[in-house]
Amino acid sequence: MPVLPPPSTGFDLDVPILIVGAGACGLVAALSATDAGAEVLVVEADAAPSGSTALSAGLIPAAGTRFQIDAGIDDNARLFAQDIQKKAKGENPQALVDLLADRSGDVIEWLADRFDLPFSVVTDFDYPGHSRRRMHGLPTRAGRELVDRLRSACEAQGIDIICNRRATSLFVEGDRILGIQLESPTGTETLGCSALILACNGFGGNRDMVREYMPEIENAVWFGHDFNQGDAVTWGDALGAETLHLSAYQGHGNVAHPQGILITWAVITQGGVQVNLRGGRFWDESQGYSEAARAVLAQPDSVAWTIFDSRIAAIARQFQDFKDAEAVGAIRTAETLADLANVTNLPEDALATTLNALPTDGEDVFGRQFSAPPLRSPYCAVKVTGALFHTQGGLKIDDTARVIRKSGGVFPNLFAAGGAAVGVSGSGDSGYLSGNGLLAATVLGHIAGAEAAYDMKKEMPNA
Fold this sequence. Notes:
Elements: E1 3-4, E2 13-20, H1 24-35, E3 40-43, E4 60-61, H2 66-70, H3 77-87, H4 94-115, E5 120-121, E6 135-137, H5 143-156, E7 160-162, E8 166-173, E9 176-184, E10 187-198, H6 207-213, E11 221-222, H7 231-239, E12 243-244, E13 249-256, H8 266-269, E14 273-275, H9 289-297, E15 303-309, H10 310-316, H11 320-327, E16 332-334, H12 337-344, H13 348-356, E17 362-363, E18 369-370, E19 379-391, E20 394-395, E21 402-404, E22 410-416, H14 436-459
Parallel strand pairs: 1-8, 2-3, 2-10, 3-7, 10-22, 11-19
Antiparallel strand pairs: 4-6, 5-6, 8-9, 9-10, 12-20, 13-19, 14-15, 15-19, 16-19, 17-18, 21-22
Helix pairs in contact: 1-5, 1-14, 3-4, 4-14
């Protein structure tokens, strides 16, 4: 049973604030609560902090930061909110969009100033849907570095992170969460808490839920964290919590196949294209990498070749994943179109016709606007497929990240953030604006941690 009455014998351990999940969301929530003076404990199902964050590029969109100002970028929360809603065709709750956009810059600067995370803005290419360059990342442009630095910051603050502990049930009395039940390598444990923060991401690893809510992507490669089993939604259903946009998700149509390495979308935005096994293009790649998953999966053998050149490859090398793909031979190179056809096993005539037809400036037959320099020798290519990265629907929350009840009001001590909560990507895949996942993870994590800590202070004013 996902929801249980409190154990008659009491809990094995009681903590003020309990956080389920040690990806970016849970770790930011822990830092936020601790920074506000509260005591926290983080539990993680995996053997080490990771989550979907570690599989991403680790880029967080934020508006109006000093990093943007230093780079000469004029941006603000209003523009950011407009971009989010435009990509999602206005399907997001406006209050949630405004909240994330307004707080994004503060959270980035807090992480940089308080915990020495060395952010910088990606300034050499644009991400689809963003009217300003606002993607903030760490030196390797890899999510693994983001998780590792957040974990190190937690350790420096004395925050306990207990791994190999999977939360299986909630203990509830009335509308208050009293604790959780855990499965550990040695058996069952119970933890009591005054506040619970769900930072356990979505349900992309649960094939039954994916089939139910987003059947069009059920056959995609799963590129998220296997413990994303939909626990937050399952508990929410049992509690009578409200959910929203469970059909929303982030896909990616540029995952090296069969190596399973994420290839940055910069190879497309800088002028690259995708062709199918017949050597022809099949869609407007500028729409975004989330939509690309379905577009690629619809092609013969569910694969495509992403074609670019050495100029673009030089830009892509700022990402560790791209360098990893080169190291294992996923990136093919060729001096001529004939060589390119040979290394990709694509029909030479069709491939040459496709690439020679690319406009140097203006719109193509798919409606894509080209303004980058034309592709030139030496050429590069990588075989890719479509993947599901993470779901974007989840528990509905208020502006304090508290979970909203179907019957009205909120659960006073239950918070949801990141993939456990509804995101700002509308109701499908096309509403995903680059970085939406980590935007919600970090900003909502920060809010949930601070609000839970504030509650602890109210309960213990002299503490």
